[in-house]
Write a structure and sequence with these properties.
The chain is an alpha/beta fold. The protein has seven helices and seven strands, in the order αββαβαβαβαβαβα. It comes from Enterococcus ureilyticus. Keywords: Acyltransferase, Transferase.
Length: 206
């Protein structure tokens, strides 16, 4: 209930701030199964748009453990289905927790394979979680304002969803298997960016 309430609040806030969001190809999203929703990490508000765009599906999120040190923020994060991860030393729980959630609840998972807005290098966590939980990976991309100033100028925001990526054909998630999943994700991101705007270039905004 709290997640649904918070998503409603976020939807209203985003509409007031920007009011120019477009969610494309939502019909590609699986309807009756859990999945991992992945995207290149381009803005800190991008997860909000993904959670709204993926409605009515509910999601869990990975969040860096430092965010949970603030009692108020920790309360919101936990009730919004977020769980802490140590980015320096992830540990087994970084894989086991989302796998258990995907298997035993009705929550899908939002992940950013690069792990940071300042990196385009894909990580292997998505591949391992998808294989162990036996779920598909749904790629998505955000194209839109990269600064709050531009977001408030109501410039167009586009979130486009891709065809689900099935990893069940990959027998083993060793170095080669993980590399193949990363290749499929990157190819999907590149294709979605081309579909929205071939001239789009992501530039890091400090």
């Amino acid at each position: 209930m709290f997640f649904t309430f918070m998503r409603g609040v976020v939807r209203v806030v985003l509409f007031i701030i920007n009011g120019n969001a477009h969610y494309e190809k939502k019909d590609r999203i699986p309807q009756n199964e859990n999945y991992i929703l992945v995207a290149p990490h381009r803005t800190w508000w991008e997860p909000l748009y993904l959670a709204v765009g993926g409605s009515p599906k509910k999601f869990s999120f990975m969040a860096k453990k430092e965010l949970f040190k603030n009692p108020f923020l920790s309360f919101i994060l936990k009730h919004a289905n977020a769980f802490p991860v140590d980015r320096e030393k992830p540990g087994p729980s970084a894989i086991k927790t989302p796998v258990k959630t995907l298997k035993n609840t009705d929550l899908s998972l939002v992940m950013f394979p690069s792990g940071t807005r300042h990196s385009s290098e894909l990580k292997g966590g998505v591949a391992l979680i998808a294989k162990m939980a036996k779920v598909k990976i749904v790629p998505a991309v955000y194209q839109g304002p990269l600064t709050l100033k531009d977001l408030f100028k109501r410039r167009r925001v586009t979130v486009r969803f891709g065809e689900p990526i099935d990893v069940s054909d990959i027998a083993k998630m060793d170095k080669e298997g993980i590399a193949e999943v990363e290749r499929r994700m990157q190819a999907a991101f590149d294709s979605l960016d081309q579909e929205i705007d071939p001239n789009f270039k992501y530039e890091v905004k400090e």
